[in-house]
Design a protein that fits this description.
The chain is mostly helical and 242 residues long. Helices cover 75% and strands 0% of the residues. The relative contact order is 0.13.
Length: 242
């Protein structure tokens, strides 16, 4: 697994993909937090990071599929998939290595946003007037969300040799898993409590973490979705049909 992880992560760093993803993410969030008047912290005068945690998931929906779309699709298209599978690596080693490479890249992209936290911390009146537990919970949620989107992207890349198709499938699935269940729960078709439908989606658990209360049920949900998507990918790769 470590061999695949190292190879994939280095391939990101040796290409423009990593730098473009990190640059686009930081630029987009920076503009939203500090420049655009509708969302600027400086305009509405509250010392919080809601802009990052509200818009970050939607930026991730496009950037993470762009990272993961080549994971298996490129291997299939270039014919190196068979060569990779002949190496003394299990399917789980390959899948986990590729997943962690994308996941670590997302965490690298998030590290510079700590500067935003420090800036808002200093801008508070008094200094430090910011909901730190809420920020920590939101960061945990954003990291786990990145993991879910990475697992979805890995799955999408495993079902097609076309990177564009993999990108579209991953972006759609990420959007649906994030907010689709909330939209379905809002329909007037439920005789029972629609809360059960909301709990199937990511947004419910993401918002729960953003309140600063890190509940084991929310953590189990995120890890379960990641494991489910990677397990389906394992079945696809294990079938050797592409």
């Amino acid at each position: 697994m470590l061999q695949v992880l190292s190879k994939e992560f280095n391939s990101f760093l040796n290409s423009l993909i990593a730098y473009m993803v990190i640059g686009v993410f930081l630029t987009a969030i920076g503009l939203l937090m500090w420049v655009f008047p509708e969302t600027s912290v400086l305009e509405y005068g509250y010392a919080d990071m809601d802009t990052l945690f509200s818009f970050g998931p939607y930026v991730f929906m496009f950037l993470i599929p762009a990272i993961t779309m080549r994971s298996f699709a490129e291997e299939k298209k270039t014919g190196t998939m068979e060569l990779l599978l002949t190496k003394p690596l299990s399917d789980w080693d390959i899948i986990t290595g590729k997943f962690l490479a994308g996941f670590f890249l997302i965490m690298v992209a998030l590290v510079p946003t700590l500067i935003y936290y420090y800036s808002i911390y200093q801008l508070g009146n008094p200094v430090g007037d910011i909901d730190t537990p809420g920020v920590i919970g939101s960061y945990v949620g954003l990291v786990l969300l990145g993991g879910v989107f990475c697992s979805v992207g890995i799955f999408a890349s495993s079902v097609t040799p076309n990177q564009i198709v993999a990108f579209i499938v991953a972006a759609f699935m990420s959007f649906f898993l994030f907010s689709g269940f909330n939209s379905i729960a809002a329909l007037n078709i439920w005789t029972a409590d629609p809360l059960l439908v909301k709990q199937l989606g990511i947004l419910y658990h993401y918002e729960a973490l953003s309140k600063g209360l890190i509940d084991s049920r929310d953590l189990i949900y995120f890890f379960s979705v990641i494991f489910l998507m990677l397990s389906i990918t394992k079945l696809i790769i294990g079938s050797r049909q592409w």
